[in-house]
Specification:
It contains four helices and seven strands; from the N terminus they run ααβββββββαα. By secondary structure, it is of the alpha+beta class. It has one domain: Peptide deformylase (Peptide Deformylase). The strands form two sheets. A five-stranded antiparallel beta sheet has the order 1-2-3-6-7, with helices on both faces. It has a two-stranded antiparallel ribbon with strand order 4-5. The termini are far apart. Bound molecules: zinc ion. Zinc ion binds next to helix 3.
Length: about 190
């Protein structure tokens, strides 16, 4: 088990992993398109580690930098089952260059869209180009759950949320609920 008290660890200086704040809808930053990463340096490596920490703590299977208020084209994911060892994957400047087929991703959810899930139309298979955290080129052919995760996260980097891909009526149910909630809090 990963120790959740990241604050204490950073004070002790053993490890400086930080859990980052995840922006939630309707924060406008989530609608912003990310800028390409131009430099893979220590600062970026630290961001990657902190994003991974944030994703595992949430817990989630994927996280795009835009969700933690950084408009860089970068995402992390790990779809290994919880009982298995962690398998962190990092994609920098990912692009879907081809897709095939169509499926409905059932009950899709998002850390930035709390308390809501919906069935989302997705491509069945995607072909993705990116570079890893060492700057080496990656070519991925993904099907099934991984294909959905990649489409979901790459959408984030293009300023899109899964609720932008469902019917207006279903989206309105959610946005009304969120507006009511925000009103109650203020
Ligand atoms: Zn998401």
């Amino acid at each position: 088990m990963r120790c959740p008290d990241s604050v204490i660890r950073s004070i002790e200086g053993v490890q400086s992993l930080e859990s980052l704040e995840i922006l939630t809808y309707p924060n406008n930053f989530l609608a912003k398109a990310a800028e390409p990463v131009t430099q893979i340096d220590g600062k970026l490596q630290k961001l990657i580690d902190n994003m991974a920490e944030t994703m595992y703590l949430a817990p989630g299977v994927g996280l795009a930098a835009i969700q933690v208020n950084i408009d860089q084209s970068l995402l992390v994911y790990d779809i290994a089952p919880p009982e298995e060892d962690k398998e962190l994957n990092v994609l920098i400047n990912p692009k879907i260059f081809a897709s095939e087929g169509s499926v409905v991703s059932e009950n899709e959810g998002c850390l930035s869209v709390p308390e809501f899930r919906a069935d989302v139309p997705r491509a069945e298979q995607v072909f993705v180009e990116a570079v890893d955290r060492e700057g080496r080129p990656i070519h991925l052919e993904a099907k099934g759950f991984l294909a959905v995760v990649l489409q979901h996260e790459i959408d984030h980097l293009n300023g899109r949320l899964f609720i932008d891909r469902i019917s207006t009526l279903k989206r309105q149910i959610y946005t009304r609920r969120m507006k009511k909630k925000i009103k109650h809090q203020s």
